[in-house]
Predict the 3D structure of the following.
Amino acid sequence: MAAQTSTAGDRLRSILRVADLGRFGMIILLIIVLMGVVALVGAKENRVEVILASFLATLFSVATPLTLGALSGIYCERAGVVNIAIEGMMLGSAFFGFIASIYLKQAGLSDQMSLWLGVAAAILTGALFALLHAVLSITFKVDQIISGTVINILAIGITGYLNRQLFFQGNVPHAPGVLPVIHIPFLADLPVFGKIFQQQPVAVAAVLLVAITHFVLFYTPWGLHTRAVGEHPKAADTVGINVYFVRYANVLIGGMIAGLGGAYFTLESVPSFEPLMTNGRGFISLAAMIFGNWSPFGAWAATLLFGAAQAMQINLQYYSTSIPEGLDFLKKSQIVGMIPYILTMFALTGIVGRTTPPVADGQPYEK
Amino acid sequence: MKKNLFTLLSALAIVSLALAACATPAPVAPTAMPAKAFRIGLVTDVGKVDDKSFNQSAWEGAQCGAKETGGTTKYIETTDPKDYDKNIAQFGDEGYDVIVTVGFALGEATIKNAAKYTKAKFIGVDQFQEKPTAGVGGLIFPEDQAGFQAGVVAAMMSKTGQIGAVLGTDVVPPVYRFGEGYRAGAVWAKKDTKVNIIYHNDVGFDKTFTDPEWGKTTALSMMDKGADVIFGAGGKTGNGALLGVAQSKKGFAIGVDTDQYLTVPEAKEVLLTSAMKLIVPGTCDLIKAVKAGSFKDGNVVGKVGLAPFHDTESKVTAETKAKLDEAQKGLAAGTLKTNVAPVKPAK
């Protein structure tokens, strides 16, 4: 009996370690604190459930591209390839997905069809950028940071240049709008909180991909191979795992997910493209990935925290007249903007504990 | 192998840099330049000359000026605030007659360059001149009055008695004046109107006007809490707010600077009107004044107005129109004051 308990305990501990549920919980707690502050301040003006529903809606839309970016990073880095090109991949995908949707619509396809094919084009763009990264960093063993930087600059250049060439004259064909809201049965019909479940497809996909990535990484042979290649490629090689293939495949998967993240900007959020519109979110995703200790749920929680930061800032400005005396600093949006990051630093150094990257992360593999 | 790789990488790097370079300033020559023509140069604020908003209006004004004076015009798009000075100097070095600098943020660089290039006349759009500088005309607008009128319409059209505004940063005085004018107008029209204003203050100058996704998210957040008319004022960020209202398919939106019915067609159905600064005629007139020799240093106050209601015309109530009329007459006659400070008061 005693032996059994200890096995169960061990198993629990190992699940906790693998999934980093402790980290996940800690970050969610931080988010709840931020939400609590907003709810307290706004309680005079709106009902609490309305505030919370609105807060969560903002949180999820801000977190969507970050979540996808972080997952992209996890696939690459778990296989031992550092990918700082997520920013560029998202920007490029946002642009080419948008362009594809516009021209497909012009070619006579329906709005819906052009949007979905636009998403496909965005994913493909992400994959192509990833292929470049893979060729450079896996086959040619270029320093992975440099390869990533090249892709980031390349994406800024290509999108900026083509955007000007195609759209400068002002006779831009009409964009087909944005992806439709998916009506999740039952949940979306809930009275106040229903609106949180009325999400567009990329946002839904992001959440599903978190769970899928967790399953793939920790419960499938493919995930085992991936982690083996990222931790100790030589050992993986000696047991017959094709290190190059596993790395290539994971970098491509990562690129496709980043491509989906790019689609969020121009096909799901707003039907327009701006140069540099990803606005550093690719790098924030990387931070979230590290904060989440390279685990899907940990990283997801971190992106939600960043989303909560944004939501808090918007809401505190909204309720600025209700902020009690003595808490005047909450009226300064610049300062409010910093609070979550400061909390993050505290959490990172003190509460959550150290993060450990995959051992072979960033090292090219030589046979 | 190593060498191949190096070549490949260098080639890539060069291509990217070349592309990046093409994407930035590269002035475009619209017409061949005759010798000794009257030349007008325009430097945008961070953003593009086809931003469907502020920069574009100034550029159209410059083109109008060129047409009226028989001159030619070129522009430089600023991609980084660090380049203001450099971009203005480029026109100065080439001996342009008029240099239009677009936006509050270029004010300092404009004054500095005016001292250096004394032959050129500078038109600083949105640049309030605290004291006159030789060769600099600041084209300013009473944005508070435009915002006031927008606020009147918003308050009268709101069913919930709650309206919102999604703005760029209040560090830029015209943005502040739009926002506070809007608040004043709403409260003047209906005393109990609840006005919520959210600025995108958490990012730098380079991002605050070019973040449509943030604008949309913020507009939706406001509507979640009961606001049903949203004023979007802040370049692409504001446009994002208009798009957000359009996507939610409830409530109304109000645009800014130009008639956004034409510039953000996706929001046609929900767009009530736009709080316009008549930048095109303002800039054009000043260029003509330079040519005619009647240009004066110091501030020139341009005109503001509201755009037509277009598609929402039938939904705008008679009361709204009457109230707006009253406001416009009062503002024009000077009997009605917005009481908005020209810049955000420091605490």
